[in-house]
Write a structure and sequence with these properties.
Layout lengths: L1 H17 L9 H34 L18 H29 L7 E8 L2 E7 L5 E4 L2 E4 L4 E7 L4 E5 L4 E5 L5 E5 L5 E6 L12 E7 L1 H10 L36
Parallel strand pairs: 1-5, 4-10
Antiparallel strand pairs: 1-2, 2-3, 5-8, 6-7, 9-10
Helix pairs in contact: 1-2, 2-3
Length: 263
């Protein structure tokens, strides 16, 4: 049985790692998430193969044979050492993996000095991106332009119901909740065009709620910025203020114009 288990692991781990679970890595955070996922796979395969081997071995070896319909199984009264082992070992494994996962997620949330702030305003059923500039002005765009390799802080707001902001290639996802501002940090590492999607069922048009993300070299981003006109207010409107939503504690209202270009 040990031989079957070892062979199962030898086949299972490369097989699990070869499957393309994720889209192309497009951010620093995605690299960390993909590594975390690989570690979880490497830890899970031996346990999966062990459980399946024991199940199949038991089903075959201890199956009922003709004439044994009335027979009962052997009386078993437990095994203290075995029970301690199968409680302690999974506990150590789970605590270890949780600690590692927490470290990765905590690291992905780290604030980088000089990060660029981008406001993401969501409504039924679209996204709008605004780049705060000095003097309370902002650049507003339906397409999310990002300079490659520059840390970005997304400030998510919703104008109506709960939405979310997800770029699969960034491997980062967060809800946009009416009345509060949620924060997501991403450092793009690959030039390309990606989709931004809402992954929170938000109404009839939810399936169409998408936007385009363009990660471009820094020089191209700067020239795009210089061609954009500075506006005071976004066309889709401002998030409701606290006074218009008395039931929602901590509603931040519109602070589009107060933030500078970096956090
Ligand atoms: Cu949605």
């Amino acid at each position: 049985m040990v031989a079957i288990w070892v062979v199962g692991i030898a086949i299972g781990i490369p097989l699990a790692l070869i499957i393309p679970w994720f889209p192309t890595k497009g951010s620093l955070q995605a690299s960390n998430i993909h590594t975390l996922y690989d570690v979880l796979l490497i830890a899970s395969v031996p346990i999966f193969v062990l459980v399946e081997t024991v199940v199949l071995y038991s089903v075959w070896n201890f199956r009922m044979r003709p004439g044994e319909e009335e027979k009962d199984g052997a009386p078993i009264h437990g095994n203290t050492r075995l029970e301690v082992a199968w409680t302690v070992l999974p506990t150590i494994l789970i605590v270890g993996l949780c600690t590692y996962a927490y470290t990765v997620l905590h690291g992905n949330e780290k604030t980088h000095p000089g990060a660029m702030v981008v406001n993401v305003t969501e409504r039924q059923f679209g996204f709008e991106f605004s780049y705060p500039r000095t003097g309370g002005k902002q650049i507003v765009s339906p397409v999310l332009y990002l300079p490659n390799r520059r840390p970005v802080v997304f400030k998510l707001r919703s104008l109506d119901v709960i939405h979310s902001f997800f770029v699969p290639q960034f491997s980062e996802k967060l809800d946009a909740v009416p009345g509060i501002t949620t924060t997501l940090r991403v450092t793009p590492t690959r030039v390309g065009t990606y989709p931004a999607e809402c992954t929170e069922l938000c109404g009839a048009g939810h399936g169409l709620m998408r936007a385009s993300v363009q990660v471009v070299p820094d020089a191209r981003f700067q020239s795009w910025m210089s061609t954009q006109k500075l506006d005071g207010a976004p066309p889709v409107g401002n998030p409701p203020t606290q006074s218009s939503q008395p039931g929602i504690p901590g509603a931040t209202g519109n602070n589009h114009s107060t933030a500078g270009p970096s956090e």
